[in-house]
Structures are given as C-alpha cells and as structure tokens.
Amino acid sequence: MSPSGDGATEVKICSDENGGFHGGYIKTHCLKSEPPFCSSSYLPGIALNPFQDSEKLARVVTASAKGFSIGAGIKGGLALFSILARLRRTRLSSTRKVEVFSNRKAIDLAIKETLRYGLFLGTFAGTFVSVDEIIAYLGGHRRTAKWRSLLAGLIAGPSMLLTGPKTQHTSLAIYILMRAAVLASRCGIKSKRFGKICKPLTWKHGDVFLMCLSSSQVLSAYILKQDSLPPSYKSFLNKHGGKDLSILQGVKDIASGLPFTNLEAIEKYYNSTGVDIKLDPEMKIPCTIIHGNQSCSAHVVSFFLQAYKRALPVYLPVYLIPALIVHRQGLLKRPCNIFGKGLLGTARSSLFLSVYCSSAWMWTCLLFRIFRWCNIPMVAIGTVQDFLKYLIN
User: Fold this and answer.
1) Which of 44, 77, 152, 373 could bond 132 through an S-S bridge, CB–CB 3.0 to 4.6 Å?
2) Cα distances (Å, whole numbers) of residue 359 to 130, 251, 390
C-alpha cells in the first residue's frame, strides 16, 4: 500500500500459485475535503474537531465580527441620522421640555436597537458559518454541497430573537423570504426539471410589472384605508405623500361616494399655507382638494421638486453608512469611486421616490379629468402608474 500523488491510496494485489488474481493496482480515493470517510481520520490520537484548522476558526470569527459590525453600524448609523433630525426639530419646537425627555428615550432606544441588531447579525453569521463547517467536515464538502446551506440557515434563523423576544419584525422576515424566493426562482430557471415552469420569470420587465401591482395596493391603501397599513408604512407615506390627512380624507369621501365630512378642515389647511380657496360640496372630481388653486400640471412639477428635497435625506444615510462600513478598506484606495457610486445611488433612489409619489398624483388627476368621475377603481388604476419610475431605480 502506498500513497499516490493525487491523494489516493494504491493497493497492489498479487496472484497466488493457484492462478488467482494477477498483479495490478486498485485505487481507493480519500479526499482531503472529506476526512471523516478517510481511514486517517479514525486513527488513534486524532480528534474529530472541525475547528482544528485555524483557517476555519478564523472564518467563523471573521463572519461573526463582520456581522456584528454591519448590523450595529447600519442600524446605529440610521438611528444617528434620525436622532440628529429629531434634535433639529427640537430647536424649532416650542415644547422643548417634552421633546428633551423624549429625545433621551429615543437615544436609549437607539443604543439598545444598535446592540441588538449587531448581536443578531453577528450571531446569525457566526452560527451559519459554524454549522456549515461542521456539516462539511462530518459529511464532506461535495456530498453535502446541495443541502448544508439550507440546514445551516434553518439553525441560524432563530438568532433573530436577539433583536427582542417581544418585538415582531414582519417586514424583515418578509424581505428575507422574498430574497429567498428570488434565489429559488433563479435556481429554477437554470434547472432542467423546473426550467419550463419558471420560464415566465425570465420576462425582462416582470419585476416592474409586479412592482406596479404592489404600488397600486400600497398607494390605494394609503389614500383609502390607512388603518390597514403598518405604522412604519403609514408614517413614511404620510411624509413623502406630501398631503395633509384632511386632504386624504376628502379624496376618500368622494371616491367612496360619501358626503364630505371635512371640507372646512381642508380649506383651513390651505389657508394656513397662504392659499385662499372655497371648495364646492357638489364637485365630481377632487383635483381642487388635492392641489388647491394650482393646475394639475403645475402641481406635478412643484410636488416633484418638493418630493426630491424630502427624499435626499432619506437615502443619503442608506448609501453613506454601508459605504463606510462595508467598503472601509477600499475607501483609502479608491475613495472617489466609492463615494461617487454612493452619491449616484442617492440621487437615483431619490429620483425614484420623488417620481413615484408625484406620478401617483399625476395619474389620478389625469384619470379624473379624462373620465370626469372619481371612484375606488379609478384610484386603484391611477396608482398602478407607469413603468418609468421603476426603470429609473
């Protein structure tokens, strides 16, 4: 028996005098990546420890550290921008004592959330890599390649509880599920068995079509039934939708075929902005409710400019903070390239959000003007919108 150069073991079989086997060689492979199935792994004095290899242990430690730094950095960075914006509002507010107290609570909450998200991603990454290495060691890299990542992810998944056992993260869970569905669909497209079933997923603008349908559902709910939206969605849309709640209530009343309940509140709101307006209780389309004395086209232009200013502070930290954390080493070598991409991403995403919101009002007004009528299906059709804003993003 002798080792060969390719990692196999050669066994020489000799013939006996009675005419048995004649001389020859048989190779039995013993792959280095599959030590449990090699004879050497069962020799006395050798422990079955997948982390004896310093590279594997370093991979686990590195994954945990990177996960913690990314989770804490992104969550903490976004919280920092939020607190700075809150402090800026406090200086302009008349109720400063109440605001100072709430600011302290906000800072404490931000620190807790930062640590929790850091622990979550650090534990998730470390657990995933550890389980992946253990399974690969026990079962072999090639034998377990098709399923060990799935099992490692299932075992690492409960680490989300570190963000708070009483806290629900439905949006995060749905996002992860959708990303998993995207990966599964890509594998299905390449598969010989499921390729035909997944063929519709190869449509070039299929994702844009799905986004249009999602847009219709979300924006229709924003205008007609805000209570059905999660608080975070509601807060975000109320800010970037750019319309007072009294205006939304007026549009809801006319679309639902109900008598107006708050025309005076709408008029009072416009008066507070310097616009003197008198609304007609018998109106058939709500354009004057939506944009007062402005024409529909002038409203779209002015709304777009205001929406872009509102969107920039939202996306600046989204691109800046990951650049500082994920590309911290590359910043010293190519800072212009990294920051340039970040600024381009900020400008593009801000353009997307501003076009998204302004086109919603543009299409609803356009349909109202064309059909001289306003109802719930018309609002839903208007908020489907065009493909332009999704192609921008």
Assistant:
1) 152
2) 48, 17, 12
Dihedral sign (CA 38, 44, 45, 47): positive
Answer for the pair 83, 136: CB distance below 8 angstroms, yes or no: no
Q: Where are the beta strands (DSSP E) in 18-128?
A: 24-29
Which residue shows structure tokens 């779209």? 300
Rounding to the nearest 10 degrees, give the CA dihedral for residues 313, 316, 317, 322.
Answer: 170
Burial 349-373 (b: 16+ CB within 10 A, else e): bbbbbbbbbbbbbbbbbbbbeeeee
DSSP string spanning 16-45? -TTS-PPSEEEEEE--TT-GGGSGGGGSTT
3-state SS assignment for residue 13: strand
- Rounded to whole angstroms, what are the CA distances from 374 to 109, 180, 256, 331? 44, 40, 9, 53
Three-state SS at 11:
strand
How does residue 27 score in pLDDT terms, banded at 50, 70 and 90? very low
Beta sheet of 24-29, edge-to-edge order: 2-3, 8-13, 24-29
Nearest one of 130, 31, 120, 10 to 74, comparing CA atoms:
120
Tell me the per-residue pLDDT of 57-110, one tens digit each, with 9 for 90 and over: 888 999 999 899 888 888 888 788 778 777 776 665 554 444 555 777 888 888
**Chain position carrying tokens 């389980």:** 131
Q: Give the three-state DSSP class for 329.
A: coil
The structure tokens listed for 256 are 């639902």
Ramachandran class of 385: left when φ > 0, alpha when ψ lies in -120 to 50, beta otherwise:
left
| Average pLDDT of the residues of the chain | 79
C-alpha 75/C-alpha 116 separation (Å) is: 9
Longest dimension (CA), the chain: 117
DSSP-assigned letter for residue 157: G
DSSP per-residue codes, 254-322:
HHTTPPPS-HHHHHHHHHHTT------TT-SS-HHHHHTTS-HHHHHHHHHHHHHHHHHHHHHHHHHHH
Q: Is the pLDDT of residue 212 over 60?
A: yes
Q: Does residue 128 carry a pLDDT above 80? A: yes
What's the rounded Cα separation, in Å, for the pair 28 and 385?
Answer: 65
